[in-house]
Every structure is written in C-alpha cells, then in structure tokens.
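Minutes, project check-in
Item: structure for the 672-residue chain
Input as provided by the requester:
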Amino acid sequence: MTKYPHLSAPLDLGFTQLPSRVLMGSMHTGLEEKGGFEKLAAFYALRAKGGVGLIVTGGIAPNFRGRLAPNGCQLSFPWQVKKHRIITEAVHKEGGKIALQLLHAGRYAYHPFSVGASKIKAPINPFKPKAMSERQIRGTIKDFANSAKLAQRAGYDGVEIMGSEGYLINQFICSRTNRRSDSWGGSYLNRIKFPIEVVKQTRAAVGKDFIIVFRLSMLDLVEQGSTFEEVLLLAKALEQAGVSILNTGIGWHEARIPTIATSVPRGAFAWVTEKVKQHINIPMVAVNRINTPDVAENILRSGQADMVSMARPLLADPLFVEKARNNQAALINTCIACNQACLDHVFKQQRASCLVNPQACYETELSFPPVTKAKHIVVVGAGPAGLAFSCYAAERGHRVSLYDQAEQIGGQFNYAKQIPGKEEFYETLRYFANRIKQLGVELHLETKVDAPMLSDLAADEVVIATGILPRTPPIEGISHEKVCSYLDVLRDHKPIGQQVAIIGAGGIGFDVAEYLVEQKPSLSTNVNRWLDSWGIDREIAEPGGLKPQQSHEAARKVYLCQRKSSKVGKDLGKTTGWIHRETLKKNQVEMLAGVEYLKIDDQGLHIRCGEKEQLLAVDQVVICAGQEPLRSLHDDLSALGIVSHLIGGADVAAELDAKRAIRQGAELAAAL
C-alpha cells in the first residue's frame, strides 16, 4: 500500500482521466527552438512513463509577435503540426497525457516587434512594446484559439493558457501595465475581457472534450497588481468560460521577491491556491517549491489543492511519481532549486538540464547502457563528482570501490548544506547515500589513499575526485591569528567574532556571509517568518499582495570585499544572484568592490579603495579567495606509470561548481 495515496490517485475530468495528481509544470528547455522534437519526445516520454498525471510543455507562441525571442517557437500553421506529433505520440505510447502551453510574451518579448496592452517597457527588457490596436487584440484572441485547434490536431490532450508571470494576458489584467482608455482597459471588468475572450474562443474551437488549463496569476507580487477580490472574480469567470483546470501563478518575472529559489520554504504558496479553491468548483493546482512526496501529499490531503505542479523536481527525477507510489521516496533525486542548469541556462539561450541530473534534456545523448565487460574501478573522493561517477558506473554494471578520508560522503556539499536557505543540499546527500547502497558500490570512509595502495589494488580504472584546496592570497599578515579560511568556518565551526571581513565575493564569499549574518533557524524553514521578511500579505488585501518588508537584526557586522571593481555578486547565478545580494542588504552587509588588501594585523584588515585607505576593525578575516585543484594523488600515480582520470574540483577548481562536477562524472561513467 502506498504511503502517498492522494498523490497517486487519478483525477476524473469527466471526459478524460489523469493517471495521477501531479502536473508537470511548464519548463522551457531550449530544444523547442533548435528543432529538437525527437529529443523533446524522449524527455517528455520518460516523465510520462514515470507516472506524471499531465505534462505541460514549454511556452509556445500563438503568433509571431508573441514569441519570447525572434527565433522562439510558434504554432500557427497546419504545416507545423507534424513535428508536434512526434512528442504527443511518444507520450501517449507511455500512457501519459500532455498539454501544449500557449504563451504570448507581450512586453517580455525579447525582440523589437513586441506588443502589450499599453506602451510601457518592462524593467527587465530593453525593448518597449507597441500598444495593441483593437484589431490586433481581436486577432490575437483568434490566434490563441487557432493554435489550440492545431494543438488538438497534433494529438495534444489539452492546452494551458499562460495568464500569469507578467506575460501578455497578465499585462491586460493589471493596471500596472494596462493604461488603455478603450473597452479593453480602465475598469477591472474591462481589463479581464481579454483572458475571458481567449478562453471562450478557445473552448469554441476545440469542443468540450479537450483539456483547457488556465494559469491564473493569483499573487502578482508587484505594485498595482490584483487584489484577492479581483483574482476571485476572474477565477469564477474563467470557470464559467470553460476552463477545465485552474493552475496557480505566483509573481511576475520582474517582481523583486523570490518565488522558486532554494531559499523559499517548501510549499510556501499553497495557501494562495487554498484561498481561491474555497470558491471554485473545478480542479485547482498548487505550485512552487513542492519537491518531495511528503510536501505534495500534505497539500493534497489537507484539501489545499486538487493537483500539485512540479517542474524542476521532474527534471531532477523523471520517475518521481513512480518512486513515491512504490514507497521509494528515499531513492528520489530531489530538486535543490538551485536554478543553475535549468533557468540560468534558458535565460542565456542554452539548453536546460539539471545540476543533480545531467541526463535531463540529454536523454538521447547521455545514456548508461549495461556494459559487456565489467571493470573494477577505484574512485578516490566522495564529493559530488565522485558520487555521481560511482553511481552511474555501477548502474552500468561496473564494480566500483569508493574511498574518502572523511567520515561521511559529500565533500564540499557538507559545507554548502549549512548555509541558510541551502538546506536542500541534505537531500542530494541522502539520495547518493541510498543510491550507492542500492547499486552495491563498495564504500570505504575514513580511509586515506596513496599511490602505492592504489597500485596494490590493481584496478582496471582509477578515478581521482579529490576536490580542491582553498587558495591563500599573498597578503601581508595572512598568517595572523585573526585569519581563517571558509573551511575553518563551515567545516571546523571555529568561533567567529561579531566583526568580520570576508576576502573574496564569489559564490563561497556570499555563502559564508549569509551563514554569518542570518539568524537561526533559517527563514527557509518557517513559512510565516519568510513571508513577513519579504513583505507578502496572506490576505492579498492590497494590489499585488504586498506589504512592508519586516526588518531584522543581523547576527554580525560583516564586510564582503572583492578586488574587482565590478558590481559585487555580478557573476552569481542569473536568476538567483539578486536574491543573495538582497539578503545581504537586509542584513546590513557592506559590499566593497575595487579593494586592495594592504595588510592584516592586530587592528584588523587594512585596505585601499580607490585613493582612500581605511581600517576594517574586525575580529576575524575569512579567506574565500578561490580554490586550487587537489591533484597530488594523480601526479603520484603518473610517476608510477598508472593512468588515472581527473574529475570535479581535482580537474578544474572553479567556485565549487557542482553542476560541472556531476556532469563530468556522468560523462566519464558513460564513456568507460
């Protein structure tokens, strides 16, 4: 009997039945624009095989002006139907159901042909849209209906109409972006005519036995957004207009409040869906930071929603639903909401993937078939690279012996998991611990390995994943007792004073700063405290659901310093860097750029910024100035004539890049 009966239960829509209560949320992969429909078919089919109730594709434009980018994917013509059948047939073959998301970018379109409800430029886009004419509005409504009809011909089971996140439909709904004086603007009833007409004409085009999901922005998180009463009025109108399922949208892309990053508590917005669900009769979907079966089951069991949407968790583990149904939650490769390989890639026009699952979106290219001749492979280092390699190699049938001198697996992940808002890293280590047991990897902890020992083992292959050493910069007084490395702080938990200077403002520097200033327990473990901290109103009484953000005292006074004169944190993740900067600002961290380090003495850290010399009178100076590869074992083996493979930080030390380390481990395992 499954521990997750609500998650596994089918959902009857009357004319069709969904196999589970999990909706795979829309994710743009980058394959849509590259003609990678065979690759998309393999990607979606695997998730259908894994038990997803309804898959929603990445956003497809209903017309040219609605494309996200000049080369964006569009479904407007009969000749485009054939390639979509590759996807739908693959999904149906695995017993799944799939809906095409129809997304008109509006003023978020990254090209000069963009249009919007009004001529108002988005703060995250250099292009100013043209205000749509009456003719363009009516034509766009017909385009939505036409695309839905084409999707039906292509074999899709339904469409999702994207009405949230600040895209075109959302832009018509809110006074923030709709300043029209005609019948499509002004009063709220006028502003919601556009989404209602889109649904009505779409339903008329596809008939009654076709799924229409509408993604409604229920919490805009921007000024001049919708109030709860307005959201409810539109939700009821959409139900009347023929929507089958109402999906929840949280926040515009330009909102300065995190909604899906790892620092957001799990299930932090389920209350929004619940608030609307009390007044609606069609199934509703809860969204955002639902990444474990327990969180999903609790939301469904408590009646907060009829379905749960997971996007990135199904990148991380395509068999999520099947594993939950079979009571194998411990073997789920959990999404850590880092955004590094998914959203950050897409926003840089790269193919999406997943940090913890490099096979995502590469199903046809990165595979792990059984080997014809098993080898004995010795792996040294049980950090992310070594763990990934060991699991994939053992999965193929190799005999793997994994060594590490530490008392637990994880390497640098054991430090990252301590950072407030990065508690999800515990899940990755839980997954690897269970996976290596399942696969029969021989684990040897608290075992220091040297070249003679490896020579005696006579392995067929040796993989060195020994990681990195912190780099020590040449600063006068670097050996002073005030100085410590980030390992002293995060690994050895050395006592730290109330005044701290951090040298190095890369990812590690930001992590250490957050570790030192954030109050414990972490905000990410308490939904109410987190909502208050970011100024989110659970009553949604004011437009957009905003209220003044709650200030709090920092645990310490911290200076975050970097040599480069560029903006501090400029090279952090595209979709999460601003959150880290904002968090440090909330904690009164002083971020200093263009710093020359003069010396460290009893007084503190002496620096020069421009022409000005100053003293930071601190108790500690924490060094976060990069890393160097720890590859001495590889060199010792080479001296003995033994060939070994370098992966992870031992190969390239680059800001503890787990994304590269795990992929490198996977690719080597696929090749041996």
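Outcome recorded: The mean pLDDT is 96.
No further action items on this chain.
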